[in-house]
Design a protein that fits this description.
Rossmann fold; 5-stranded parallel sheet
Length: 284
């Protein structure tokens, strides 16, 4: 699982929901039991990767980008579900404050880069400049062009410093995004996911398509390629993406020596206190 295939070729992203299938590709849905069994196997491999990262002081950055409702949050949740938050750190930065707006664009992201023995997962990243900031007019045309020009050099520098950088674009179709937005409106447990920016992104589908295409054209490089994850089928997307992450990192399983639990200490006269504290109601 940790070895990269010699036959794996550079992937040049050319997605377009109008010309290419970006969802289930007519495959049958994966059953819940099969999905959970396969996911568990991959999560065990992620634990092995975690041990290797800790033992070797490796530094890994994984970026997840995509349209609103593409499934980034669910993908990240499954990746970090069984690993340590001290090793796998998720970064989802809010909108920049007034001070941060005067900084270099990448500055607040650089602060979040991993130290040795860490994996940092960006739920949206410096690519905000090429997406929402540009489409919504939060940056100038010059700032946008400068980002597209300078980003490959910035990422080349990260890679030159032995940081493993993986970039994933979750590609959701127009129909599926619309369906997920309606679901957020109707489901009380999901309403918090639907912001005014999400509604505007629904309206500006083709503005975001053009921005995505320009971003790929400028930043899909040999040293830092984009990988597209068809995400209409969330279960397949998660399994395929986690499998790909593992295939791109040359990790090795670190030998594990099971510890021996020490015996309990003797009571030496201790008696359980009779003091009554408040207990929560047992409703189930």
């Amino acid at each position: 699982m940790g070895k990269k295939s010699k036959n794996e070729k550079k992937h040049t992203p050319k997605p377009d929901s109008n010309t290419q299938p970006s969802g289930v590709n007519h495959n049958q849905k994966i059953g819940k039991k099969e999905y959970e069994a396969e996911l568990f196997k991959l999560q065990i491999e992620l634990v092995k990767l975690q041990d290797w990262v800790k033992a070797t002081n490796a530094r890994i950055v994984i970026l997840f980008e995509g349209r609103d409702a593409a499934g980034k949050g669910g993908m990240i949740k499954r990746i970090v579900e069984r690993v340590s938050p001290r090793i796998f750190r998720v970064v989802a930065l809010p909108s920049p404050n007034d001070r941060q707006k005067t900084q270099l664009h990448a500055q607040r992201y650089i602060e979040q880069l991993p130290a040795g023995g860490e994996v940092v997962i960006f739920d949206r990243s410096w690519y905000n400049r090429a997406g929402v900031e540009y489409v919504m007019g939060f940056c100038t045309e010059d700032e946008y062009r400068e980002f597209l020009r300078d980003c490959p050099s910035f990422e080349a520098f990260l890679v030159s410093q032995s940081i493993i950088l993986l970039k994933y674009w979750l590609e959701v179709s127009e129909e599926e995004q619309h369906k997920r937005f309606l679901d957020r409106i109707e489901d009380p447990s999901k309403r918090w996911k639907l912001s005014p920016m999400d509604l505007e992104s629904h309206r500006r589908w083709y503005d975001y398509s053009r921005a995505r295409d320009a971003m790929f054209a400028a930043t899909d490089t040999e040293h830092s390629p984009w990988y597209i994850v068809p995400s209409d089928d969330k279960k397949r997307a998660r399994l395929n993406c986690i499998s790909h992450i593992l295939s791109r990192i040359h990790y090795e399983e670190i030998p594990y020596t099971p510890p021996k639990l020490p015996p309990r200490q003797k009571a030496k006269g201790y008696v359980e206190s009779k003091q009554q504290c408040r207990s929560i109601p047992q409703r189930w």
